Amino acid sequence: MTGKRSEWFDWVKALGIAAAIAIIIRVFLFSPVIVDGPSMLPTLHDGDYLIVNKISYTIGDPERFDVVVFHATETRNYIKRVIGLPGEHVEYKDEKLYVNGKTVNEPFIQDRVNQLNDNQTYTFDFSLEDLPGGYQKIPEGYVLVLGDNRNNSTDSRRLGLISIDRIVGEAQFKIWPPSRIGTVN
């Protein structure tokens, strides 16, 4: 009887340790997220399952073009791309991104921009001053984010700048559906 009790205890202990490790990984390191909506097309599709790296910004800062998950409201997270960083001035004019007056290419939307007719616009012109807050430069501790699907995205143009403290982490891997498995570019 002692052998069975010891074996049973070993199984309970192993399952408890495994559960504790899973909880630590989920809470502090990585988290699954499901894309909800078309705002990040063509990069991410509605229903894509992602793994978000929660420690990216604990040990570093967001970089331009990182795809991040952030708390948009108390109950809702959004997925967007970092476009502007602290200390920068951002402007969009004639389908071109300008950071501190210099053109910055956005390869992740270039195919869509190239397919536009003469009277179509993918990203409407705006400058940092036009956004909520009316800043001339992005303050420390904030980033400007946009969805890749610029005509169908609630992002910094409407929400204002996003506090880095509200960022959950960086979306790094697509894990579902199988045809889309890979890194998030």
UniProtKB/TrEMBL annotation:
Gene3D superfamilies, per database record: Umud Fragment, subunit A
InterPro entries: LexA/Signal_pep-like_sf (IPR036286), Pept_S26A_signal_pept_1 (IPR000223), Pept_S26A_signal_pept_1_CS (IPR019758), Pept_S26A_signal_pept_1_Lys-AS (IPR019757), Peptidase_S26 (IPR019533)
Enzyme type, top EC level: hydrolase
Membrane topology, record value: Single-pass type II membrane protein
EC number from the UniProt entry: 3.4.21.89
Reaction(s) this enzyme catalyzes, per UniProt: Cleavage of hydrophobic, N-terminal signal or leader sequences from secreted and periplasmic proteins
Active site: 39, 80
An example Gene Ontology biological process: signal peptide processing
Compartments, as annotated in UniProt: Cell membrane; Membrane
GO MF assignments: serine-type endopeptidase activity; signal peptidase activity
Keyword Membrane: yes
NCBIfam families: sigpep_I_bact (TIGR02227)
Name of the protein: Signal peptidase I
Organism: Pontibacillus yanchengensis
Name of the gene this protein is made from: lepB
